[in-house]
């Protein structure tokens, strides 16, 4: 394995390992003027002397949030190349971290590439490149997002962060941090506009059967399907139905989730009656499906759109709840 290799084509873009920096004459001959270090390592001044240098300190760990750095590394690489320079992107071995940043740049600059094509292209120059599973997943996410110049606030990125937070908490046997969760109603309001979203929620509301408090829009239900044999638990019959609904986290649950319990009770924010339970580590629905996280409301304690009527049979009053949270 070479200490560094050139990405095919006209770009003076190179992928390599830490040892590449010990061959300064070779780098200068190749036209390298800029060095991007993707490594959690103290870079000795002598190693980077004479280069424009930018370092991202991170481990080759699939749980690292590497996508957040793509806009900065893309700009560093692009400014250097368009200015007539050459860029060495290196990590420890020139396989995972350095390859990931290089692929992110290729995806950003050449929009006809997808992650698989970009990886195959880079391997033509350096066959050993192999982003770890988590990094490759983030390259796919970046491509699906449209390779934006701003990552924070992107819907797919927020959902990915939420998913990783819940998974990591489950792995630790703890609850996720309440302020790091994605609350579906807050997020959708920010995307669609408050008034528009509130009216949609109220007209498609799942409500407390006891006080008619609007709890959730139908779109905030966590969908799941009954498992098929042989994956259905033996204690669940084949015709088992759901007697509860599974919800995504909503802002009115924040106070309960702030306790950072791994499981607990869900109370109606209107009348304080118990409506169900939650478990961050997952739970079985009555249909036999295993749902993670399991935020479950009993069907017997809620009503869906069109089910509320007064004594005359006309639609009953709705306590507007979602817009106050």
From TrEMBL:
Its EC number is 3.1.3.48. Pfam families: DSPc. The active site is at 91 (phosphocysteine intermediate). This is protein-tyrosine-phosphatase. Belongs to the protein-tyrosine phosphatase family. Non-receptor class dual specificity subfamily. It is an enzyme of class 3 (hydrolase). It comes from Eremomyces bilateralis CBS 781.70. SUPFAM superfamilies: (Phosphotyrosine protein) phosphatases II. The lineage of its organism: Eukaryota, Fungi, Dikarya, Ascomycota, Pezizomycotina. GO terms for molecular function: protein tyrosine phosphatase activity; protein tyrosine/serine/threonine phosphatase activity. Keywords: Hydrolase, Protein phosphatase. Residues 3-148 form the Tyrosine-protein phosphatase domain. One of its GO terms (cellular component) is nucleus. Residues 67-127 form the Tyrosine specific protein phosphatases domain.
